[in-house]
Amino acid sequence: MICKKNKLVFLVFSILVSAILNTSFLIVNAQNKQDIVIGTGGTAGTYYVVAAAMANAVNQNSDLVNVIVQPTNGSLENLNLVHNGDIQMGMSNSDGVYFAANGTNTYESVGKLNIKGLMSLYMSAGQMATLRKSGIETYADLKGKKVVLGPQGTTIVEMSKAILRAYNIDPEKDITPFYLSFDEGLQKLTDGEIDATFFVAGVPTSAMINATSTNDIRLVDISDEIVKTISEKYSYYKPYVIPGGTYKGIDEDVNSFKIMTEVFIGADVPEEIAYEFVKQALEHLDEYKESHVVAKEISLEQVAKTSAELHPGAKKYYEEVGALD
Q1: Using CA atoms, how far apart are residues 69 and 49, in angstroms rounded to an integer?
Q2: Could you read off the pLDDT of 259-304 as tens digits, one per residue?
Q3: Nearest to 91 by CA among 77, 108, 105
Q4: Do residues 201 and 182 touch, judged by C-beta distance below 8 A?
Q5: In angstroms, rounded to a whole number, what is the distance separating the alpha carbons of residues 135 and 322?
Q6: Which of 12, 126, 139, 297 gives 20 to 30 Å between its CA and that of 228?
Q7: In angstroms, rounded to a whole number, what is the distance separating the alpha carbons of residues 295 and 143?
Q8: In 21-48, which positions are buried (b, 16+ CB within 10 angstroms) versus exposed (e)?
């Protein structure tokens, strides 16, 4: 009797397990989506805002991919995470993508990273913020000051150092350098712990909007002569003027540089995944172009102009829509 009961229990259990497995199988196939992670930057920065809006549009319209947005320390971390296969996509300034894809500059000692180009999005601007009461008006005034140059090892640091050197300021000897994230730099500035902080972001960026709402901040201007010198030496730095009135209390135009923001992807990511992401992101651009003013810059005319060789999936889509013509 006990044996029959055990057999009955086992039979019922087997039926239940089979039903659960079949149900799970149906759910997986009904969703039929593959998670892909995109590395961005701090949650207050432009990378994160634009990527989150783009991911939402892709997820709402794709039957193949589900994009997960991951906050990071920015370009350098994103490039390393994608190269190592920890995430599938990332955002970076174009100089970082170029250096990584070609194994130059920052990556000279490690060689080419395992990445491909995906999308060229919008321009970001280099911005040096200081409190007006500091008396700092030009980069020349930074000598002897405590200055955040950007996160350690990033292309942001490369840009800030290039500007300082153009003013004959040694970034290691003539200032006290700090290597912090965008958010950390602004926080230390408003707390009075540093004199100035450099960052690269879309214009405007929410972190600066928040900071200028409660603090009297100045953006440090670059002279026309230095702008010309640097843009001629580094072709990827383009002259840019941050319009007066962009941020509260900053009514004057400010000379700076702009650089393209790109989305790159792991070279080993399947072609159909890259194709699907690009297709949905561009065909549903209207759904997120109002998420930030810089998203309005995304267009077929520039999206395929990446600093790394295009991923085959992206190239396939761009060929179909004539973006490579």
Answers
A1: 10
A2: 999 999 999 999 999 999 999 999 999 999 999 999 999 999 999 9
A3: 77
A4: yes
A5: 52
A6: 297
A7: 36
A8: eeeeeeeeeeeeebebbbbbbbebbbbb
Give the bridge partners for 122, in sequence order.
261
Q: Where do we find the tokens 């150092």? A: 161
Distances (CA, A) of 99 to 33, 40, 126: 33, 18, 18
Rounded-to-integer distance, Cα 289 and Cα 148, Å: 31
Average the pLDDT over 55-66 and give the result: 98
Q: To the nearest 10°, the Cα dihedral for 11, 14, 19, 22?
A: -140
Helix (DSSP H) and strand (DSSP E) numbers for the chain: 10, 10
Catalogue all structural domains in the chain, each as residue range(s) with its CATH number. 31-123+261-321 (3.40.190.10), 124-259 (3.40.190.10)
CA 315 to CA 118: how far, in whole Å?
8
Confidence tier at 9 by pLDDT (50, 70, 90): very low
| Nearest alpha carbon to residue 205 among 261, 154, 148 | 261
Strand boundaries in 202-275, DSSP class E: 217-219, 238-242, 254-266
Q: Cis peptide before 204, with omega less than 30 degrees from 0? A: yes
Whether 293 contacts 248, CB under 8 Å: no
Q: What does the DSSP assignment read for 262-311?
A: EEEEETTS-HHHHHHHHHHHHHTGGGTTTSSGGGGG--TTTTT--SSPBP
Say if residue 18's pLDDT is above 60.
Answer: no
User: What length does the chain have?
Assistant: 325
In the structure encoding, which two tokens stand for residue 65, read together?
Answer: 């991919």
- Residue 39 and residue 82 in contact, taking contact as beta carbons nearer than 8 Å: yes
How does DSSP classify residue 309?
P
